[in-house]
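stuck on this one:
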Amino acid sequence: MAAKTTLNAKNLQALGAETLADLVMSLVDGNAALKREARAALLELAGDGAMAAEVRKRLVSIKKARSFVNWKKKKAFATELTRLHRTIADKIAPQNPKEALELIWLFLGLAPSVYERLDDSNGMIGEIFHNACADIGAIATRAKSDPVKLAGQVFRALMDSNHYAEFDGLLASTAQTLGDKGIAHLKALFTEAAAKPEKPKKTRKEDVIGWSTRGAVYRQDIERGHRESTIRRSLMEIADIQQDVDGFIAQLDENARKLDLNAADIAMRLVKANRASEALKFLDEAHQDERFFHADWIDARLTTLEALDRTDEAQAMRWSLFERSFSDDYLRDYLKKLPDFEDIEVEEKAFAHVSASKDVHRALEFFIKWPALDRAAKLIEDRHDALNGDLYFLLSPAADALLDKHPRAATLLLRALIDDTLAGGKSGRYKHAATHLMDCDSLAGAIDDFGPFETHEAFDARIRAKHGRKYAFWTLIK
């Protein structure tokens, strides 16, 4: 009897279509989201364009809406947008790709009005539009879109819209469908737009949207900057699609080419095109002190030196970077390039350099990350007085890493955390400090000899004597 009354799909089928229909109607009554789901199922069954017509109707309705979508309604709204997108891509596109292509453009056209109605600081809605944009190419391929016509649509979307980045990724999505012919036409459209800059519009007081150190910022200036940036970025992306390195470089003026990130972008493309000598020239001309270069510039230079068979220079650069930054990545790369058996000696040299650092915390972080736990333990015991217990984000995970094989060193880290918390009266950390103290008690049994350090009993007695009145802490000790 119990099995037949269990709520599951099989038992519900026994109720019959009429009873189930009544149940569904009672559920959807007053629930707009469920009602749309039920209606969508009926439309899918009806076929003959009924689903596409319903989606189109809903898109128009959303675009016309003006009411604010608060945080309580945002999740349901996002769910509906996702459902509309998936209906277009998964259900309409296989049967009627031309209709689906038109609908996906309409869907993305909702972005401006949607963003004006809600707060998307967490990016939930933006992700939905980006996912829809990524589907345009596949739908256009199914629809056998004319490359020239599609190029025009892409151009207008990027130039006239995209104020909310809803069409970011559009070129990548449609590149294969556009093919050589469509890409060439798109390039011509952007090149023509670049050659005909918009005439400056007369500014009025009501056009001021902000202020800078240079004075008033006008809406027209922002719009003109957006247009120029769109053209430049699009031509750079087209150059990448066409594997045209010179076309990519041409979009950056001489000063822009000397910025380290841009120089790195140029260099990596030149190396890929077997033009490493030119790549190195761009990197050399980047006007910054090497100590402050971006990681991308550094990686590009190393890649370029290797491409030029200047391995010794690349190795010297890796070692220099390691010495300054204690980067385990650069050290690992350096060691990989060494002949067999030489890496052990160099690793010892590197460890000695880290151990001698004035910054005990940087050294500890390196040894834990490598990992070289025996080195980390020795560092802690040799320089425990220099440990800053306020650096819980470093000391706590380091203690966890050392618990099993180096309990004495782990204990010293935990004591540093406890001392800092109690000495500073940091009540927000009392719960953690109490856990650390109990961990010290547990570790004490695994330590045969505390050596020059306090035993656990001595440490416990000392902090009780000094901080015994911090009752909020001691009540947490079990």
